[in-house]
Amino acid sequence: MSIVDSLIAPTGTLLDAVDSPINLRHLDLAHMEQLARELRETIIATVAETGGHLAPSLGVVELTLALHYVFDTPRDRLIWDVGHQAYAHKLITGRRDRFRTLRCYKGISGFPKRSESDYDTVETGHSSTSVSHGLGMAAAKAIQGDQAKVVAVIGDGSMTAGMAFEGLNHAGDLGRDLIVVLNDNEMSISKNVGALSSFLSRKMTGKMVRVLRDHIEERLLALSSVGENILTVLRKSEESIKGFFTPGMLFEALKFKYIGPIPGHELGDLIATLENVRDHNHGPVLVHVITTKGKGYAPAETRPGDYHGIDPFDVATGLPKKNPLAPASYTKVFGDTLCRLARQDQRLVAITAAMPGGTGLLPFAAEFPDRFFDVGIAEQHAVSFAAGLALEGMRPVFAVYSSFMQRALDQLIHDVCLPNLPVTIALDRSGVVGPDGPTHHGVFDLSFLRFIPNLTVMAPKDENELRHMLFTAVNHDGPVVVRYPRGSGEGVALDDSFRQLDIGKGELLRPGRDVLLLPVGNRVFAALAAANRLAESGIDAAVVNPRFIHPLDSELVTTWAAQTGRVVTIEDNCILGGFGSGVLQLLNERGLLLPCVILGHPDHFVEHGPQNVLWADSGIDADGIVRSVQALLRSKT
Fold this sequence. Notes:
It contains 27 helices and 17 strands. With 637 residues, the chain is of the alpha/beta class. The chain is globular and about 100 Å long.
């Protein structure tokens, strides 16, 4: 029996016998291609049940196999930028049996995770970090005398971020052995934008380049010695000619040796190229690979943006399994509201950082193309760009996920809040976001926003209040953040007209005598439910919707805190430095030394899982609030 025959499982599948990349290195090309098909089938079937990043992972199946076949992973370091594309990597690095738990509570992560496997070199989830990570590793190995290779795989969409170029620039200067694989599918999450994307599009497939070269050589050799002399000159100029047709000039200018472009779904070409790079790497090299996002699943190939990150779906039709009766999401309400506001105010413009679909801005982009700006994966630039728009009289709204806004804190402080400019940040996906896990949870924004002078921070209790807050924000002469969660709204009726909210004024939702509940944003309805249950046991809880985290409604909060004598704050944010900390500071300043409990996420990174489960784990659902109030009332202090 051959080694290959021994690897094939009784079921006839290769994948069931692949426990590590070591197994790959015994396969011939035909069996590698069979394995690629099996990987795609498994990824499609699993993501259809769990949801996840389907199109990115389907696009790099052959590239994943080739990298693990050629390089001695995990000794050779393999870094996946962002990590959206790591499903095939997980399947062949010892997690096949657990792959059905992908993104499930207590299951394996949807992103590379160092605690899961030695093959996961770094924690990833945000884009454009791989080159910097890889260069640091390469520099360390050079100091230590370690000859192992370092390979960073980065998409062309991630190349739109400035950090990627900071890494490339430094790598060219250091001259260390670093291999950067540019996975070029002309997509990040949505269609790429910007001058770099246009430049990268000046490419010819590896097959086209070979056919053209062979044709020229054949014609010149027919000219006898004259043709041979011309051919010699052309061969010496091959890199210059290739640079004319491809982006090689850009990377050569950064002191990288440029190789490509090569077809990303032909395993033979990939393996041969990577072996050559592995064996002759002296200094930084960039390998340009052309792939198709969603490869192997027709709906994902046709609409890769829709299948970048997708909820569970039906494989046969490609349609999502969502509940059609679920209330509209906060994201959709935001997008619809912004369009309505833009019809009324010609100054209003919208900005996204490569996520027009995810942030609900596609309708705005279609209706107001001249007032819509996609800046690529460049959150820092987006904020300062918004500041420039505001300085010239516009009312910019930057829609961004909470976890990605972390990248632009300095620009928010220095370029927007210091000059007190009318810029609105629509902070989507605040709080826990579910299966995407700790890299995407927006559980730090209240802590890093509430200390900034001039910045107004709001959090709506429902989608109707979100509309009024957006109206208030774009008409406020200063910077505003409107913070709202991922997922469906509360299903409340929407008012016909917008209402201007008084800055820094909350609302009393329920009077009470025993305890004051102060829930923020999406925790308001949980607090109201808890108050109703507490009333059944004779506990009378007041509930105040603060609406504003900064500035806080000091009079409303202190009045009801003094009347009830006990306070419980509830937030879908980390406890440290968040809303509860602000309330404690206020009570201390007013001399109200009252028993106070702060409910929020504890001092560790929250793992992935359904939102309702994560809220329950942190004690910020209705059950957790009831338990905390009962414990507070039992306390003698």
